[in-house]
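Whether sequence alone determines local backbone shape is best considered at the level of individual chains. For completeness, the protein is quoted in full, as a sequence line and a line of structure tokens:
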Amino acid sequence: MKKDKRIDAYIAKAQDFAKPILRHLRELVHTSCPDVTETIKWGLPHFDYKGMMCAMASFKEHCAFGFWKASLMSDSKLLAMAQSEAAMGHLGKIKSLKDLPADKILIQYIKEACRLNDEGIKVIRPKKTAEKKNLVVPADLKKALARNKKAEEVFKVFSYSNKKDYVDWVTEAKTEETRLKRLTTAIEWIAEGKIRNWKYLRK
């Protein structure tokens, strides 16, 4: 069993209820996948085999255990947990050894995770498509920009977030007087190429 001393330390610092759970999970991983490599990632114990395979974690009142490719595994319960955002890990909140599936089932899970990595099967994650952002610029800001060509040109090349900062600042004014003051200031700053929060930029 190739052990990482950092995981020994992690278990030693865990709550008393968690120690036997973490030790048992660790032993089952090594039993099911003898060539597994232990490591620490994001502050948590991970078990790698030809890539990331599974990980465990300890909290104040429960432990968690999860598989990197749970969404590709065959058990419907595991798949359901992989698709749920209710709790960390894929075995629910583990508060004692009794909360774990039978060793036989856990070993099947771990061996399947090994096989997926052996075969180089990858999780296909959907590409995030950037949503088209439609920013509604209020009429008074549009008119003010139109009267100052420099400000209008700068505003056009501002990023969406920079434009939104100014729009929000103007539209969130509580009184008409405040709104007019903000409009005037906004046009001055924009013409100078300044973003709304330019004062807070690191020099």
